[in-house]
Amino acid sequence: xxxxxxxxxxxxxxxxxxxxxxxxxxxxxxxxxxxxxxxxxxxxxxxxxxxxxxxxxxxxxxxxxxxxxxxxxxxxxxxxxxxxxxxxxxxxxxxxxxxxxxxxxxxxxxxxxxxxxxxxxxxxxxxxxxxxxxxxxxxxxxxxxxxxxxxxxxxxxxxxxxxxxxxxxxxxxxxxxxxxxxxxxxxxxxxxxxxxxxxxxxxxxxxxxxxxxxxxxxxxxxxxxxxxxxxxxxxxxxxxxxxxxxxxxxxxxxxxxxxxxxxxxxxxxxxxxxxxxxxxxxxxxxxxxxxxxxxxxxxxxxxxxxxxxxxxxxxxxxxxxxxxxxxxxxxxxxxxxxxxxxxxxxxxxxxxxxxxxxxxxxxxxxxxxxxxxxxxxxxxxxxxxxxxxxxxxxxxxxxxxxxxxxxxxxxxxxxxxxxxxxxxxxxxxxxxxxxxxxxxxxxxxxxxxxxxxxxxxxxxxxxxxxxxxxxxxxxxxxxxxxxxxxxxxxxxxxxxxxxxxxxxxxxxxxxxxxxxxxxxxxxxxxxxxxxxxxxxxxxxxxxxxxxxxxxxxxxxxxxxxxxxxxxxxxxxxxxxxxxxxxxx
Length: 584
Description:
IGPS_HisA/HisF, EC 3.5.1.2, 584 residues, lyase, multifunctional enzyme, Imidazole glycerol phosphate synthase hisHF
């Protein structure tokens, strides 16, 4: 797989390393050669930097959302120096490696640019280092992801995939608890609170690496959630997406002598929490302003003489408020086509950039993730569109209509083409970065054999007393029905590379009568990836109902939050009363 490489690395000198050996294993072998070691040290020596204490060196190899860590560092009062040559790594006072994407492409970049060898030298000299997510995994001997693939070889062990046969959903997405060991240092202010994970691969503690492990997390099994040796740290979770708790981790790394002015409030995190997600449907109103709106069964216009677009606020302002209110994630759905704009000028790009400056929880964006040609005739692939969203602050992208067409073709042919937006984006950025949004409509039938789709017995009979229904998928914002059911679509997109499903229901949208638990149970019982329940929330009890009666990993709401009918904190307090774990 080809990795997308940022422009600054075009000047890197290609490494002559043997690809079958890790950069750090080569370093160790050179050290054992005596005189060769002297020549090696003179070429890759570490010298003290003259930069200010407020500067952090960032290793961005060009894949995924690195804007979030940049914004978090700036929020904490630090400026950023980007790595442009291996020498920049060696001369760094503090180095952060926010690895995003897949293991093999990342190692390919490190090997070809000489950064891998420079990293090993830097770490071997016990310089201040923080690896994040993939930045932790790359320190191990190897990974099974599209492999085996050699890693940097700093820490003994192999990075393997979570075992879905253990009854867990893969990827591991959401807010989980840490079991912190002694001398963790940068985790001292976590205070038994949740942090945010999103990954399909993990490293397991062993006798060989136990001296490195500073915390573990439980998800089907105990895995390494952070390591520390001297000044070298790495975490599997995303501190830049873990709210104030995550910012405390970054602050302790950047200034080890710092500590909270007051003892952090002790949390009660014990396991993976159920997520409460705020959704913002964004479109232009009739005056051309970008607003947050909300549909009633997907109709976003007021039932008035003016028939204007329902305006519930400005997207960036609302997103910032929901972050303060405790939303676990924020999802933007672009329901206006901006096809005349050059890619970099798309209004949703600007929304993401501004939002990510002060919102430190995961951001998902959906709508328009497909191939298109702008007004100048410039063609953009769906992969380019997704890449721009990731660079602008999105952590996940949501695909709707394109995924339906890809699933139909897959079911028809029985073969993957590798050309759909879903497959391409998942292959480059990992399936944890791809959400498929399903927009089904309930279709009642008298007999399960009436249609060639998955039919279930429904809790509430149809208008003519029908006891059965199937869920027809739609495209184009619910305007066009397709010959595929929600069950068939969910199974297909999981095969094609989706890492999560956002499950809407047109019949329940805007009604405030609760989620369609029949539908949510059907889909969450049928796939091995997380499912987000959406459409119909009207009270806190609707959230506990969907979590108690289905295997949904998260529940999403829009209108009740926009109209301030139900505060996010009220939902979470209710869930705690029902003994449902949530992040507080």
